[in-house]
Hints:
Blueprint: E1 3-7, E2 10-12, E3 18-25, E4 32-39, E5 46-51, E6 58-60, E7 68-73, E8 78-83, E9 92-100, E10 116-117, E11 121-125
Parallel strand pairs: 2-11
Antiparallel strand pairs: 1-3, 3-8, 4-5, 4-9, 5-6, 7-8, 9-10, 9-11
Amino acid sequence: QLQLVESGGGLVQPGGSLRLSCAASGFTLDSYAVGWFRQAPGQEREGVSCISRNGIVVNYADSVKGRFTISRDNTKNTVYLQMNSLKPEDSAVYYCASRRVPSYYSSTCRNDAMDYWGKGTLVTVSS
Length: 127
């Protein structure tokens, strides 16, 4: 069964950190660009970050630049999102998704163009 499984969410105080993981099973993630998306209650799902197949090219939403870091370990078939200096507005369900791409350097992850999605992990930032 082809699937992505997110983990690492939870409750954290403002200014704290969390590390999310996205593990793939049933397929090898190194043929895919991988993105993190999030959706807060009553809001549309938005892109947070995206990483290329080789991990060299990354991009971030302006709202998380300088605070979040995306990375991947293709030997473990896993992508990570390190989230530091968390703010209450970062609270959301975080999803990872993958898109099969021919280029090792492609880091475009669009909401409407991903091949596989995980079920999400909840992040709550509150004191």
